[in-house]
């Protein structure tokens, strides 16, 4: 009996061994990827001279145009006999934009009045004004809708298009998730869950890139804005059917504003933690955890100001079908500060310096090598001195740049989206791997530290890179 049991056990053992081993007739199991990350020493990035061009500080303002104290006024400064309109952050105001940015408008946090379409002496049609944050490179545009929306109560998406001159990288941070410095994108499409309602404020913001040639431009080079209200017929984000749009989505590249169907790469624009809670059910939990630490290598594009305010981009796949008819809300354009505006006709910006915090002077590079090392034969090394920073001189006048960092970002798969969620990322200045990697780009980060003692700003941006020959 004992011998029989030993025989059965031997057969069982051999069967297990046969199942766990491979031979020439069996497919080998794909090895798990393993990546070693290292830092380079003794090499620094390049800071390109900041005194490029000469700013044009002269602006010929329109008659009656005046700066107003947006921070302390409860109501808009309008001519006599106009109905009073509360400021967007006034408790009496109705707003349709994100609660996360409602109280983010203070001068001490870097906000400056950029432009307004009204004063105590005149009112030009729509009530609009914009603020620019000189430490973050963000332009926020506010507009007010009075009445006449009752027929469109089910219109629940604000559709926006911003455009700029093709020769400028100004909108590249707004239009691109992974920024290609060899490609200027002149348009950006956006969709936001802002309802069409009477007597309400709307707000949309754009992160701008520094254009080193801005001082050579003139009043013909303008930013154009188109806003419309619409409703969705269907919505899929990362393959998941959703009943409604929960937060702001920007679409890569150029898309026609009157198109009814959008199937494209896109990204969420998350203003803060309330926005994050809004999309908690639409992103995998493994993705959500990265937002708790903006310094995490998985966050490829962000601005973080202080302890609460953040402006994070997170890539996604969008399939959105809109109703065939939308309602045009606003169409206008305005000049770009920093350009030569001495011959301007119409409203001029109150902020007259170049926009944006920084840009890269060229596409960064990396070196790919292979070795006979069996465990990690594939190596990717960032050419750190190929990361050439262009910092806006207007920013360097008022702030210091600290903690400058740069590293490669890589994935095992070609796409950033894998199985409807973010693919695992590998980061480092040197990456050694047992399998080939796809280099997605170079992530750069730094802190803008205001000289007046204000809160420091963390800036994170990822740029496409190319392999050195």
UniProtKB/TrEMBL annotation:
Q: Which domain of life is it from?
A: Bacteria
Ordered alphabetically, the record's keywords are: Signal
The stretch of residues making up the signal peptide is 1-20
Official protein name in the record: Uncharacterized protein
To which species is this protein native?
Answer: Adhaeribacter pallidiroseus
> Source organism lineage?
Bacteria, Pseudomonadati, Bacteroidota, Cytophagia, Cytophagales
């Amino acid at each position: 009996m004992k011998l029989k049991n030993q025989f059965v056990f031997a057969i069982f053992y051999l069967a297990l061994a046969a199942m766990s081993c491979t031979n020439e007739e069996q497919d080998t199991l794909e090895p798990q990827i393993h990546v070693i990350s290292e830092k380079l020493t003794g090499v620094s990035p390049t800071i390109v001279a900041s005194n490029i061009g000469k700013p044009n500080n002269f602006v010929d303002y329109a008659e009656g145009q005046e700066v107003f104290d947006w921070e302390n006024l409860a109501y808009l400064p309008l001519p006599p006999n106009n109905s009073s309109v509360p400021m967007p952050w006034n408790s009496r105001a109705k707003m349709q934009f994100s609660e996360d940015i409602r109280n983010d408008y203070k001068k001490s946090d870097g906000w400056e009045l950029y432009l307004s379409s009204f004063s105590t002496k005149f009112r030009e049609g729509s009530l609009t004004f914009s603020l620019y944050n000189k430490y973050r490179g963000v332009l926020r545009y506010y507009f007010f809708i009075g009445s006449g929306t009752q027929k469109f109560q089910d219109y629940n998406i604000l559709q926006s298009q911003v455009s700029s001159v093709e020769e400028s990288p100004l909108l590249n941070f707004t239009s691109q998730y992974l920024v290609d410095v060899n490609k200027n994108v002149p348009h950006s499409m956006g969709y936001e869950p802002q309802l069409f309602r009477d007597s309400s404020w709307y707000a949309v913001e754009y992160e701008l890139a520094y254009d080193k040639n801005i001082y050579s431009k003139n009043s013909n080079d303008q930013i154009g804005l188109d806003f419309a209200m619409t409703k969705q017929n269907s919505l899929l984000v990362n393959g998941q059917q959703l009943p409604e749009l929960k937060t702001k989505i920007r679409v890569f590249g150029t898309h026609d504003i009157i198109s009814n169907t959008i199937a494209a790469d896109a990204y969420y624009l998350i203003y803060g933690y309330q926005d994050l809670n809004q999309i908690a059910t639409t992103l995998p939990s493994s993705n959500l955890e990265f937002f708790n630490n903006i310094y995490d290598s998985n966050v490829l594009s962000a601005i973080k100001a202080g302890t609460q305010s953040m402006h994070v981009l997170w890539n996604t796949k969008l399939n959105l079908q809109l109703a065939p008819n939308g309602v045009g809300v606003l169409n206008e354009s305005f000049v770009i500060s920093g350009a030569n505006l001495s011959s301007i006709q119409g409203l001029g910006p109150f902020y007259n310096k170049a926009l944006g915090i920084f840009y890269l002077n060229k596409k960064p590079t990396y070196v790919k090598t292979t070795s006979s090392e069996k465990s990690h034969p594939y190596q990717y090394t960032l050419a750190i001195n190929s990361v050439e920073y262009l910092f806006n001189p207007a920013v360097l006048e008022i702030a210091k740049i600290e903690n400058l960092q740069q590293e490669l970002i890589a994935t095992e798969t070609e796409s950033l989206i894998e199985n409807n969620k973010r693919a695992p990322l590998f980061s480092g200045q040197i990456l050694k791997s047992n399998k080939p990697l796809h280099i997605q780009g170079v992530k750069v980060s730094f802190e803008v530290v205001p000289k007046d003692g204000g809160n420091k700003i963390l800036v994170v941006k990822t740029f496409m890179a190319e392999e050195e020959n």
